[in-house]
Design goal:
Layout: H1 7-18, E1 31-36, H2 40-48, H3 67-83, E2 85-86, H4 89-93, E3 105-106, H5 108-121, E4 129-135, E5 141-149, E6 152-157, E7 160-165, E8 172-177, E9 185-189
Parallel strand pairs: 2-3
Antiparallel strand pairs: 1-9, 4-5, 4-8, 5-6, 6-7, 8-9
Helix pairs in contact: 3-5
Length: 200
């Protein structure tokens, strides 16, 4: 299922990690401004998959981003993007909204769930892998996976194989899972003045 990360991507990442931290500006970590209810799709998902919504064994984790972890992220992101065909919940299930692990096709939340599951299966801490709700370039609702790293909050997105620092995406960030409890959700303070800091 996985695509192998290209040498170019690994080389670019190595330059970023070894280079100046100025590549990651002050907005590398999302700011939280309060709590908010989980999306209804997440609540329904937890009713079907309660084991995947249990309290974290290791809350509030931040992953060290090195060449090995970067390669895993790249493989999972591009692999799931390639393996899952985009389709709406109405097309798949005949309902407006349903969060589910994709079998052949899925929408944005389904890509996020699958990427999260695959990273957890290879040892990533669940509390560093946060389902996140945004508004995309057109103002529509969209979901991405935020990965908390020591180099900033990076985003895995079904719209691109690029992995970006959150502030370098074109999205407006609304809310995400809490790193303290998967069933608590945080409001995001998205007051960026510029788009900064990306990892290619």
């Amino acid at each position: 299922m996985f695509k192998i990360a290209t040498l170019k991507n690994i080389t670019l990442f190595s330059l970023i990690v070894m280079g100046s931290s100025e590549a990651f500006a002050t907005q590398k970590m999302m700011e939280i401004k309060g709590t908010t209810p989980p999306p209804i799709g997440y609540i329904q998902f937890c009713g079907v998959h309660p084991d995947d919504c249990r309290p974290y064994v290791r809350p509030n984790q931040i992953v060290r981003l090195d060449t090995n972890s970067w390669t895993q992220l790249s493989q999972v992101n591009s692999g799931v993007n390639a393996a899952v065909m985009p389709a709406t919940d109405m097309q798949i299930y005949g309902v407006i909204e349903r969060w589910e692990y994709p079998k052949v096709a899925g929408d944005c939340e389904d890509y996020v769930l699958e990427k999260r599951r695959e990273l957890v299966n290879v040892g990533w801490p669940e509390s560093a892998l946060l389902i996140t709700v945004v508004r995309d370039e057109a103002g529509d609702g969209h979901a991405v996976l935020t990965v908390r790293t020591d180099r900033g909050d990076v985003v895995l997105d079904n719209k691109t194989d690029q992995i970006l620092v959150w502030a370098d995406t074109p999205y407006s960030y609304l809310k995400r899972q809490s790193p303290a409890n998967p069933n608590s959700w945080d409001l995001i303070q998205d007051a960026r003045t510029s788009l900064v800091g990306s990892v290619n």
